[in-house]
Amino acid sequence: MNRSKKAGSVIVACFVGLALAGPLLAGVEPFAFDGERLLTPSSVNWLGTNALGQDVFSQLSYGARTTLLIGLGVAVLSTTLSGVLGLMAGYFKRLDPLINGLANVLLVLPSLLLVLIVAAFTSGGVWQLIVTLGLLTWPGYMRLIRASVLSLREREFVKASQLFHGKPSYILRKHLMPFIVPLLRTKFILSFRQAVTMEASLSFLGLGDPNQPTWGKMLEQAFHQTETWMTTAWQWTIVPPMLALLLVTIGLALLSEGEHQQGNRLLRSYSPSSRVKLLLASSEIAASVPCAHSSVKAAEQTQRTEHCTATHAGSDNAVVVHDLSVVHNGRTILQPMSFSIAAGSVTAIIGESGSGKTTLARAVYGLLPDDVMSGAVYIRSGGTNGSSETSGTSDTSNICATNGSSAERGINRWVDAAFIVQDPRLSFNPLLTIGQQFMEAMQGTDASSITVSEKRLAAKQALREVQLSDRLLDSYPHELSGGMLGRALLALALINKPSLLIADEPTGALDPIVKWEILNLLVTKVREHGMTLLLITHDHQAALRVADDMMIIKDGQLLEHAPAEQWLHHPATSYSRELQALMPSIRRRHISEEFKKVGFQHREGCRNLKKEQRNVGRTT
Amino acid sequence: MLELKHISKRFGQSKQFAVQDVSFSIPEHEVFALVGESGSGKSTLAEFIVGLQQPTEGSIFWRGAPIQLQAHLQRHEQSRQVQIVFQNPDRSLNPYWKIKDIIAEPLILNKWTKLASQRKVEELLERVRLPHELLERLPTECSGGQKQRIAIARALALEPELLIADEITSALDPITERDILSLLSELKRDHNMSFLFITHRLETIRGFADAIAVMKNGMLLEMGATEDVLQHPANAYTKSLIEACYDDYA
Q1: What is the ipTM metric for this complex?
Q2: Residue among B86, B88, B243 whose CB faces A601 most closely
């Protein structure tokens, strides 16, 4: 339970206590004219009396009963209706137009007006109010629930249950209900709050039941008495009911806020990791000032700097990962690892699902929040200006800083490094055209001064580079096939010529023919532009064909990091041998030669296929 | 055992076919592999067989009887005998259910007693080689391979004779995939089961499937014994598919 939820429940619990115990403590009927008019608070009349001589505390506590009863009644009725009707509308295709149509009608009716009319005609009784409000406030959440049921209905566990002859009532109750309970909880609290304020407003307008003590009516009476404002009487006739109303609504708001936060804890926003920074130009690392010069750093920091400079100096690295580890909720996802990746190389990260490959990639790209990640990652700056653009940074010993306090800027996504995710179909926003998404990716460049037409030109060129027609800029993602989207995604990643490209299973969702096509293109383009590629895959056969270096990860541990040839012929671990044994049969010859050949044959195959498709198209 | 005759499915009134004139049959105790790229209509065929969708033309026969015309009771029996395991383990297990409830679901729905189904669940868990501790866990606490085994255990609960495996290994890494395949081979050997194995990865079926059919754009391009098709593909598409998957044919 978080803080806002705790505070909310305490406030609401106080009022429930008041509603239950208050009338007993007061000992006076709310409408009894027992005392003098406008008595100040005393041990007999705890909150004094009003202008009619009625006990204010008694009215307040009886009013709490009415208010909470109405709130609870409306919340129960409205939530039940939203839940049941939402489930039915989402699950049964036949009922959907009926229920949804009814909801639409109710949504366009002015509900306040309706409530006023009903309240005026029924003399504003408690139950009439509950029923009216309950019947009027279900459509909003019903539609939310219907929408989520519509998508849940297509899940395979529902289909499986149908195949086992599970009845609709069973599927709705057992399978779908758990998913909508969080929605219902929020709806319950919101309806409660809405009902409390609505009831108070109606009573204040004089539409409530005159025989029921309510907070709204207390306020109405107090406001109508001129004495209230001439004397100090407002302090006990107006402040208590007003405060009660305010506190109850705030308490309920806090409750629903807490619910909201809890529901969305996975979606909470975090600032991109400050542990991922730009690597300084390689020449500077090589010539970096000796560590002793970094006088501002503590001794410990200096030591680390020494180590780091010793490890990575001199080499032309695109990525330097130093002591990176990821721990989430006490579980170690990545064990401490340090490695560097040479600029212009293709490195394949191999491992089974759940081994931490993707986590590593996300850590390198800075997608992990700082609190789960320790260590540091440096990426060479990219973009059209090349790596020289960071030369302005003076303190070169920052290369080993493990916190974000330095003046270096973090990486600029799509410019310094780009990240391609598994399914090209899911990587594009379905509501934007391909062209719009290219424009978006180009916004991060330093050369943001270039005009739209220039950007468009660049996008067209990028598309042509991956053998796509530039007319695609105006199409939406759903108009393209999986292979075309894969190419478009590649073009998107290439557009700013980042120095590092991270591809997380770029071909996992594609069939073998398209897979080779995309992989082929990816590696060719990366080599052409001298970019560095981090290829994450569980297809080690493909990896072996295209990669210079192999990194083997198992259970979050970096087992091996070796050149591909060496890994193939002299695997260092038994796990690698086991992996290699699984390959259908790889020719242990020169890998890149093999790759070229297969790539060529494959293109031939595709051409044949296209011809054949055309022929089929003609004949049918 | 199962026979599909001239199955077609078109979208609405259009001339576009999701599946066009597909016929094949699966003999008893055989593994029949259906291969093709995504969107070629493989999964649609699977849904026809289990009854999640109806074809617009053609008919499907289970042991000689057309399944669309069967009486309710027979239909019930047939659906027990044919079970399906879906592609994505995350979507095929309800994330709010414990593993023991997931596996027991078909038993409970078939009116088994609590005790009997509990015993059966334990036996099934053993059969798919999963540890006992898993029973109390939620699917989110299991690995991809474990989840797929759980889905298989659920499909096995009613002792089917034909198991349809719809791309069950395409989301898994090679080692897990190998383990799942060896599990299926074991099931085939020990329980005399038949399989309809749907995949887009040719390399997975060698040595496992007896016959293979290649699909593209809803049409059946080629069909035959596995080794025949792999060694001497008649169709250009099949050839390029094989080239993309195997080195030794390239």
Answers
A1: 0.90
A2: B243
